[in-house]
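STRUCTURE:
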């Protein structure tokens, strides 16, 4: 919907930003200067004690010097209430007493329908709340009081209700209120059978209303009291109001509590949230019958910067934690984190609170683990790393996790922590010193370098002085250029290209284009349109320009041989470099003889790759007969593909 010119400007002048923000924060009166329209408070977007959130009433903008949130009144309402732009405009217009300009008929009709559905849902909530107080709700009241230990006041706070064990109680009640059958079905609370009969979706269940960020009833959750029920918990279906993956149970209350400094807790279900809130942990939310989605995770982070995921201590709870970790890794950014509180003995928060009380729950929350610790435990707990191959497999998995983190700073810190944990696991903590043990070296014996450090022969070895990264980048460039000019080779070398570790951002962009458009008839033209600067920079490299596949673009066999050689050499160089890096890390802890042997073997492997193959020739296109057999062997054995050992 487009708004008339000047409407938004008029709206912004009629609302005072400090009044809008003041509903969500407590101003720091020592730091604020109200006479000048200068306000300071703890930021509502992240938990903090200092007042780093600044509102300038004269300019109509806010800015947080901690999390860098910024915007105007409309943006503030959007973020804090989880609303769309037009919904935020409507909220502010009501505050200012301004009529929102007439919308186009279709938009107006959609908004009116949503309003009608919200009204239907409120009637549904009222009906089920009344049913809990009737004779039919006696069993439910007994369950809530005795097993869940909820007081009358708690039942009112959470608007808990009871759906009678019949097929038409709600349907008839809504019809008596004048609700059309079409709206009943659209609300999701009444279903239609194959023969067209309407019936209540919830029957014989304790009812929990689900409200959106604005506090509007949008759906229900129901807990069956029948131990033989097919589903213990049942949520309403997705409707025009309700999207399971974009809402959270108890979102409005949790946001308010987290804004006052309470820790944000992510639990698994309705009763966990209710039990936590009633026990003094009001900033608790839960997903709605599904695993946490990326939208829900972003919503959670808008409520609190470092939520604690409270997990049942059973296998299912731990499995749920791993799914959250996999979801969160690509979304991590500075200031946004997750901690995990694993409950003991298969308990959920409700069980623990009933058995041991709030202090026990607080202790569990205080001991919550950062996400990197749980990730490390997943990959190492219960496993043996008694061979180089197993340790290498662990390294590969960890590198895969690191590669999924987009934020460079967080990726570096995760890498440092994993390196530290790895050193602890393998007993090579940096700085550890043990006396040198003279005598011959025996298998299984740990030996340590003398105080003077590594021997001069080790420090001066050819491998320790290698300068590989520059050459690796050039070889990457030749591989990419060859595939762009010879797209017919992409299927054969696709796996190698996917696994190739690239050192330049432009190379990464070109790889994505090559893999995505491998079947395009005009790959080079397509890449030139999509990434002209990256392609020009690639082809301008002198090392690329003189490469045989570039100089002989029609020679398909030559390009195949060249690709095989470049990929083989890259694998050898990088294997040697990784060995150097690990050896340098272990300089203090490893026996000098072992370190020297590792460096020597790595050097031999790298220089063997340099001595063999087409690089002995000044031009790959010369002496083809002498080279073809060797390179064909490389191709047949797919030396560029890392083999499992």
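SEQUENCE:
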């Amino acid at each position: 919907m487009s708004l008339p010119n000047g409407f938004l400007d008029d709206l912004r002048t009629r609302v005072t930003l400090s009044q809008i923000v003041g509903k969500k924060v407590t101003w720091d009166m020592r730091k604020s200067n109200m006479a000048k329209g200068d306000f300071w408070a703890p930021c509502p977007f992240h938990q903090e004690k200092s007042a780093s959130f600044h509102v300038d009433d004269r300019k109509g903008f806010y800015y947080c010097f901690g999390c860098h949130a910024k915007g105007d009144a409309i943006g503030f309402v959007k973020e804090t209430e989880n609303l769309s732009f037009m919904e935020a405009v409507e909220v502010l217009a009501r505050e200012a007493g301004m009529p929102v300009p007439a919308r186009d008929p279709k938009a107006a009709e959609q908004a009116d329908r949503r309003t009608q559905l919200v009204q239907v849902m409120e009637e549904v909530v009222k009906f089920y709340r009344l049913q809990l107080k009737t004779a039919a709700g006696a069993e439910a009241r007994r369950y809530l009081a005795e097993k869940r230990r909820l007081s009358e006041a708690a039942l009112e706070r959470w608007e808990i209700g009871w759906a009678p064990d019949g097929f038409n109680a709600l349907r008839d009640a809504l019809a008596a209120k004048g609700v059309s059958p079409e709206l009943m079905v659209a609300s999701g609370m009444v279903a239609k059978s194959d023969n067209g009969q309407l019936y209540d979706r919830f029957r014989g269940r304790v009812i929990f209303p689900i409200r959106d960020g604005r506090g509007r009833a949008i759906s229900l959750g129901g807990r069956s009291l029948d131990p033989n029920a097919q589903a213990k918990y049942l949520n309403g279906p997705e409707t025009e109001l309700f999207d399971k993956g974009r809402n959270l149970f108890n979102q409005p209350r949790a946001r308010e509590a987290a804004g006052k400094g309470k820790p944000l807790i992510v639990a698994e279900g309705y009763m966990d949230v209710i039990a936590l809130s009633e026990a003094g942990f009001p900033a608790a939310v839960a997903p709605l019958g599904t695993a946490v989605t990326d939208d829900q995770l972003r919503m959670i982070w808008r409520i609190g910067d470092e939520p604690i995921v409270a997990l049942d201590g059973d296998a299912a709870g731990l499995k749920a934690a791993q799914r959250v970790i996999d979801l969160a890794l690509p979304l991590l950014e500075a200031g946004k984190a997750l901690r995990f509180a694993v409950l003991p003995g298969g308990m959920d928060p409700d069980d623990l609170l009933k058995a041991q009380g709030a202090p026990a729950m607080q202790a569990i929350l205080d001991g919550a683990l950062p996400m990197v610790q749980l990730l490390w435990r997943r990959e190492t707990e219960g496993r043996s790393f008694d061979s180089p191959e197993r340790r290498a497999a662990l390294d590969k998995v960890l590198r895969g996790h690191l590669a999924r983190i987009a934020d460079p700073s967080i990726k570096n810190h995760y890498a440092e922590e994993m390196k530290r944990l790895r050193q602890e696991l393998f007993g090579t903590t940096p700085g550890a010193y043990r006396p040198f043990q003279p005598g011959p070296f025996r298998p299984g014996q740990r030996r340590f370098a003398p105080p003077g450090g590594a021997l001069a022969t080790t420090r001066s070895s050819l491998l320790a002085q290698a300068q590989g990264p520059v050459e690796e980048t050039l070889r990457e460039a030749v591989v990419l250029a060859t595939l762009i000019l010879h797209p017919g080779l992409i299927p054969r070398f696709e796996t190698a290209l996917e696994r190739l570790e690239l050192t330049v951002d432009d190379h990464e962009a070109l790889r994505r284009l090559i893999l995505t458009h491998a079947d395009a008839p005009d790959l080079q033209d397509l890449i030139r349109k999509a990434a002209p600067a990256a392609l020009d920079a690639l082809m301008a490299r002198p090392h690329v320009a003189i490469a045989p596949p570039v100089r002989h673009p029609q020679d398909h066999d030559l390009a195949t041989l060249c690709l095989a050689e470049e990929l083989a050499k890259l694998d050898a160089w990088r294997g040697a470099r990784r060995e150097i890096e690990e050896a340098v890390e272990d300089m203090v802890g490893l026996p000098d003889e072992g370190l020297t042997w590792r460096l020597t073997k790595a050097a031999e492997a790298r220089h063997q790759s340099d001595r063999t193959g087409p690089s002995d020739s000044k031009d790959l296109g010369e002496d083809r007969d002498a080279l073809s057999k060797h390179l064909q062997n490389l191709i047949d054995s797919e030396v560029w593909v890392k083999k499992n050992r």
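REMARK: The radius of gyration is 32 Å.
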